[in-house]
User: Fold these one by one.
Assistant:
Number 1:
Amino acid sequence: MFVSHKSPVFFPSFSGTMSAESASSVFRNQVDLLDFIDWTGVECLNQNTSHPMPNALKQGYREDEGLNLESDADEQLLIYIPFTQVIKLHSIVIKGPEEEGPQTVKLYTNKEHMGFSNVSDYPPSDTLTLSPENLQGKPVVLKYVKFQNVRSLTIFIEDNQSGSDITKVQKIILQGTTVETTDMKGLKKIEEH
C-alpha cells in the first residue's frame, strides 16, 4: 500500500539546497533549546563578573534589556554550553548593542576544554559575521550538516562591531531540535505464539 504525505518531508541534498516549502517547515519545527542546556557545565571565559553569562543566556535575565554579558580584559569571549541530550542546532540569535555587539563569531561543536590559547588550533564548524540586523534579533541560519549531533557548543566571540575593548551581548538564543533516541528500557519483548 502506498501512503501519500501532504506535509513536506525534509531530505538534505548533497548540494545543500532545499525548496522554500521545506525550508519554512524545518524552521517552524525549531524550538528554543534553553531547556536542554546543562547549566552545571556552562562556562564563559573573560566575562566581567558584574555582567556574567546568565544575563545573556538564562530565561528571565536575557529578556531584560538592562542586563547583558560583558567581556573583561579585552573584546573576546569564549562560551562553552553543554547540553543534557544530543541536539540539532538550526540557528542562533546573538543580540547586542550597535557599537559593542559581537561581529565575528566562531562556533565549535563537541569541543571540550577550549581556551584562548588553543581556540585557533581547531577549525570552526561555522564562522558568522553578525550584521546590524542580527544584533537586533534576526536569527543566523547555520550550516545544517555541521550541527547534527551536538553534545556541546563553544561560541568564540572574536571581536565586536567597533573594535572597542568591551563586547556586550544582550541575548543568546539557540534554536533547533533534539535528536530522537530510542529508549531501550521502554521496549517490550514480543512473545511468539
Note: The two ends are 27 Å apart (CA to CA).
Number 2:
Amino acid sequence: MSSLDDERLNPNFSTIDSFDDAGEDLHMYDKPTTRQVQIAAVQLAGAIAVLALAAIGAIELIDPIQNAAYKIGEVAVYGPCTVVGLAILKTDIIGKVSQFIKARLAKVLIYVKVVEWQVDVIVGAFTLVEDIVRAAFIYTLIYVFTEAVIPDDSEYYIPRCLQFLAKRREFTGTQVEQIIHDVTGRLLNAYLCLEIYRFFLRIKTPKPFIHLNYDDGFLSRYLMTLTGRLDGTKGTIQYAGVYFLIDRIINLALMVVFTSQILSIFGLSLKGIAAVASVGALAVSFAARPLVENLISGFIIFLNNPFTVGEHITAGHVHGYVSKIDWLVTTVKTAQGSELVPNHDLANKALINESRLGRNVAAVQSLHLCPIIPGEDRLKEALESMDSTLHKHPLVEGHTAVWMNGTNATSGLFTFSVEFAIKDRPDDREETLKLRSKVLSDVYAAAQKCGYAVRGTVQDTK
C-alpha cells in the first residue's frame, strides 16, 4: 500500500512526521540482504550468549559477595557494587544492548518471511523483557544500597507527627531494610503491570510504515480496522464495526484485570472500591441519561458499522474524517480541528458516508513546505491561491478545503492540509492515484508561486 493511499484512508497519517518520529525503528523493518542476515544472526547469537554468561555469572557471584560482606563488612563490599550499578543505569547499558538485539532479531525474522506486524509484536515483547530486567536490576541495586548504608543493629524512631503511618515507633536497621525492600518490590510490580498493559495496547497500534495485508488473516484485518487502513469502497469493510466492538471489549477487560492486579499489589480490593463507588453512582444515576444514550448508540454504531476510522462523513454540521470511535463519543477531524461528537447525535441524524459512495472519495493530503525566501510572510496569499486552484481544478468535485495544520519552529516547515474529492475509479486504482497526484502537483505549484516549496528549493532573488 502506498503512502498516498495510507493518507487517504487515515488522515492522521503523515509520512514525514511518522518516519521522523520512528527514528531507527523505520530502518529496522527494511528488507535485509543475505549478507546482512548472516552478520545479524552471528551478532544475535553472540549477544545472547554473552547475556546468558553474564546472568549465570551474576547468580554465581551472589554467595561469594554475601560471604565477603560478612567477613570484610557490608559497606566495603556493597558500596562498590552500588557504584557499579548506578554507572550501569546512568549509561543505559541495558537499553543499548536491548536495541542492538532487537535490530538484529527483526532482520532475521523479516528474512525468514515473518509477517511485519508479527515482527513488531515480537520486538515489542523483547522490549517488555527489557523492562522486566531493568526492574529486577533496580530492585537489586536498592537492596545492595540499603545493605551498604543501613547498619543492621541501628535503631530508628518515627516522629510523633508520622506515627499514624505505623503501629510502632521503634524500628531496627534490619526492619527498615525489609520495609524499603517491600515498598520497592510493590512499586516495581505495579510498574511492570502498567508496562504489560501498555504492551497489549501497543500491539493494536502498529507503526504507520508497517505493512498490513487483508489476506493475512483475522488479526491483520483487525489491526487494519483499528488504524483506518481498510478500503471503504470495497466489501472488506463490512465487519469493521464488529472488530471495533471486540477491541472495546478487550480494552475494558484489560483495564479491569490490570487495575485489579495493581490494587491487589498494595493490599486493596477492587470489589471494596466498587462497593463504595456504587453508593456515589446511585446518587448521580438520575443525571446519567445522556451517558446511557451515548453508550447504547455507540454499541449500535459498532454493530451497524455506518462508518469506520479513516472514512469521510457528513452528519448535520459535522463534516470531516473519523479518527477514533469510542463507547460514548466519536472523534471527527474537520477543517477547524478535532471535534468530539456524541454517539447519540450520530446515531439519530441523517449521515452520509462519502468514502463508501465509490464515485466520490474524499481525501486529505499534507504538504510540508517552507518559505523559499527566509523571513518572507505570504502565508495568507499562499492559502488563498492553493484554495482557488483546488476549487477550480477540473479533476476535483464536491467539497474542498485548504488550511494550516501546524508549524515546526525548529525546521521552519509549514504543514498545509489539502482536502478534496475526485471522481474515483474502483476498477483502476493506479489511475486514481495518478489523478490525486496530479491535483496535489497543481496545488503545490500554486504554493510555489507564492513563495513556499519543499525544503532545499532555491530561488534566484536578483
Note: The longest helix spans residues 34-72.
Number 3:
Amino acid sequence: MAGTYASLARMAQVFVYGTLKRGQPNHQVMLDGTNGSSAFQGRGRTVEPYPLVIAGQHNIPHLLNLPGRGHCVAGEIYAVDDQMLQFLDEFEGCPDMYQRTLVRIEVLEWEGERSAPEETPAADRIVQCFVYSTATYLPEWVHLPYHDSYDSQGEHGLRYNPRENR
C-alpha cells in the first residue's frame, strides 16, 4: 500500500474541460498506455471564472487565460505520470497553442485514490491542477459565446472536427 501512495504522490493532477473528457472525441488518448498513465480522480470546476469558447475552423474548445471573465468551467480531474504529462504537452501544442498552467479547481465529486491516508479531497475542497489554457488566441475570440462546460455534441451546434478528418 505504501508503494501506491508514493507512486500517486509523484503523479500530477490535470484538469480537462474539452475533448479529453470521458465521452468526448479525444478521450481515448487518456486511456492509451503507450502515452503514459492516467487515472480519473473526479469532477470539478474552476474556482475562478474563465472564458471557455469554441473557436476556429475545427470548432476546438479553448479556455482563454483571462481569469475573472466568463464562467466557472466544469471538467474532470486526472492523475497523470510524467510520460502522460509530456504526451499531453505535445498533444495540446504546448506552449504555442496552449500553455500548461496551475489553476485552482473546486472538487465536486471524488473517486480517486488518495496520495496519502490523510489526503482525500472531499466535495467542495480546492485542489491545484494543471490546465491547458491559452493566452495565444485571436482577439475576436473574446467576443465569442462563453460556455460553462463543453460537449462536442452540445446545443451550441459547433461540431468538433477530429484530427483524423483534417
Note: The first strand starts at residue 12 and ends at 16.
